[in-house]
Amino acid sequence: MERTIHLHPTAPLAERVLLPGDPGRALRLAQRLLHQPKMFNHNRGLWGYTGTAADGTPLSIQSTGMGAPSAAIVVTELVQLGARRLIRIGTCGALSPRLALGDLVIVTAAITADGASRALGAGERVAPTPELAEALRSVDGSMARGTVVSADLFYDASGPERDWAQAGAIAVEMETAILFTLALVHGVQAAALLAASDVLVPARRRIAPEALEVAEHRLGDVAAAALSDGPG
Known about the structure:
Elements: E1 16-19, H1 23-33, E2 35-41, E3 48-52, E4 58-62, H2 68-81, E5 85-94, E6 104-113, H3 115-119, E7 125-126, H4 130-139, E8 144-151, H5 161-166, E9 169-173, H6 176-186, E10 189-199, E11 205-206, H7 209-226
Parallel strand pairs: 1-4, 1-5, 5-10, 6-8, 8-9
Antiparallel strand pairs: 2-3, 3-4, 5-9, 6-7, 6-10, 10-11
C-alpha cells in the first residue's frame, strides 16, 4: 500500500468506503455492518475499519473528523490507497419544514460555502456521482432528496440560515461539498446520505440520543446496501 501521512493503514482498505465524521459512529457501524472488522486506522483519532459486508465482499468505514479540511485529508489519502466508491454518512441541520428530526436526506447537490472546496476550484455547487445517488434512492425511495449547504462554521452567529434556505438548501452540514469536489478531481464516485440531527429554524432543536442511534443505524444500513455488490 502507498504510504500516506495521516492515515496509517493496519489492515487492507476496500475500494468502497462509508464516511462518517464521528469516530465513534465508525466503530458502532463497523460492529453492526462488518463481519470480523479489523482496525484500518487509529492515527490522530480517525478510527477506521475494514471487514466483510453482508454481500460477502470487503467494505471499509473510515471517519473523516469535523469540517472540510479534515475530510479533504482523509478522502485524498483514501483515494491514494485505492478507494473508488465513497458515501458520506453524516448528520445535518434541517433548514426546511419538510424535514423532521431523524429524517434521512439523499444529497442531490451541495452549495460550496466552505473554503476547501473553493480552494480546489469548485463552483457554487457540486453534485454527487449520479449512479451512486440513484443507488441510495433505489434502496429506499421514501427518503427526502435535495440540496444542502456545506459550511465551515458549526456555530455561526451571523444567522445565514434563511439565506441558505432561499438559495434552495434544505439542510446544512460541513463535509459533503469537499467530498464531491475531490471525487471530481480524482475521478472516483461519491454520494452523501445525511440524517437530520437538528432543526435550525425557527429555533434550534436537537434530536434525542435514542433517536439519533436509530437514524445512525439507518444511515449505515441504507448506504451499505447502496454499495452492495451482490445479494446480502
